[in-house]
Amino acid sequence: MLNHIWLALIVIGILTAAGRDIYDVTQNSYGNGVPWMLQIESPESIEAYGEPVNAVLLIPRRQIALHFKDFSEHVDVRIPARVTLTHATDGFAVLDMSGGDVPERFKVMAAALGGEGMLTVRLRHNAAGWEAAIDPVSLVYLKKVTNAAFDIAGVAVQIAIGLIGIMALWLGVMKVAEKAGLITHLARFMRPITVRLFPDIPVDHPAVGSMIMNISANMLGLGNAATPFGLKAMEELDELNTKKGVATDSMVTFLALNTSCITLIPATAIAVRAAAGSSDPAIIIGTSFLASLTATIFAVTISKLLARVKMFRWDRSEAE
Questions:
Q1: Distances in Å between the alpha carbon of 251 and those of 87, 101, 110, 186, 269?
Q2: Where does the pLDDT of residue 315 fall: very low under 50, low under 70, confident under 90, or very high at 90 and above?
Q3: pTM of whole model > 0.90?
Q4: What whole-number distance in Å separates Cα of residue 28 and Cα of residue 86?
Q5: Could you give the angle at the alpha carbon of 114 between the alpha carbons of 111 and 120, nearest 5°?
């Protein structure tokens, strides 16, 4: 089910980006094919061909209105640039997009053309003044979606690699504890709690040990390590189920406890924060404990209360 949800979100994202790009093409939102008329303001002489000169390109408000018809505010725009003339009437300019006064549309165009923070335009002088030509801009949002997908995929790999060490450590600890018989001792220690939470399960049933392993892993924030024990516990609980296909009260309570289990040390979350470059990855321990404690109390309480409601109870006197 979760895979279908992710697939639906991906498809919705792609269709939304494609729809926005189609709208921009039909409305010519970036003024493709329409030359820009502008003025070059420079304190230095730009008559030396081939030598870049600091300048400011002044784009009159009527040009902004001509190219960006959906722009809410049309004002004169001044953009710092490095202007280079190759001939008396030809050249190019590299516009600096980092300024706060530069319209966001120009920054989007620069990013779409592969010049993050910079926009290169071709210059030509004619009787009307300086004319600037910009390469056509298209598929802006589809490119963003594609680039974001690749970027996030790379981040996922980095985080996964960063998790290997801590997961290997704690999975090994859990396996050693299992082989050393620590589970048996934990089961005995927690017997007063398990008897009250799961009254219909024999105290020496194997499901108790699997549930304790699952809860222990969850308390250490090791969701991946807890999953196999949770599946094994559910299989063993199902052996006591007299109505297959319908969850028992113990199954529901265990599921609520597994989903909201108290987390003493959120090891996985700490590892993810460390892999992502957090300056203090362990700062979440206190808030994680309080949040998980509240969630556990609420989840177990609700499961026990609903078990007493007639509409949620099943007659198990006869097995199917």
A1: 81, 61, 57, 20, 27
A2: low
A3: no
A4: 30
A5: 90
Both tokens of 290, joined, read 């309080």
- Rounded to whole angstroms, the Cα distance separating 211 from 215 reads 6
Domain boundaries, the chain: 31-138, 161-312
Q: Which residues contact 240 (CB under 8 A, 6 or more apart)?
A: 200, 201, 205, 207, 248, 250
Question: Residue 25 in 3-state DSSP?
Answer: helix
Coil, strand or helix at 259:
helix
Q: 181-216 burial by CB neighbour count: b if 16+ within 10 A, else e?
A: ebbeebbeebeeebeebbeebeeebebbbbbbbbbb
Partners of 131 in the β-ladder: 37, 124
85-130 residue pLDDT tens: 887 778 888 888 887 678 788 888 888 888 778 888 888 888 878 8
Do residues 209 and 184 make contact, with C-beta atoms less than 8 angstroms apart? yes
DSSP 3-state assignment of 54?
Answer: strand
CA-nearest of 258, 269, 167 to 213 is 258
For residues 31 and 123, give the distance between their C-alpha atoms in angstroms, rounded to a whole number: 16
Beta-strand ranges (E) seen in 86-138 are 90-96, 118-126, 129-133
- pLDDT tens for 179-189 read 877 766 766 77
The pLDDT-based confidence of 319 (bands split at 50, 70, 90) is very low
CA dist 52 and 87 (Å) reads 13
DSSP letter for each residue of 176-217: HHHHTTHHHHHHHHTHHHHHHH-TTS-TT-HHHHHHHHHHHH
Token digits of residue 52: 């870049």
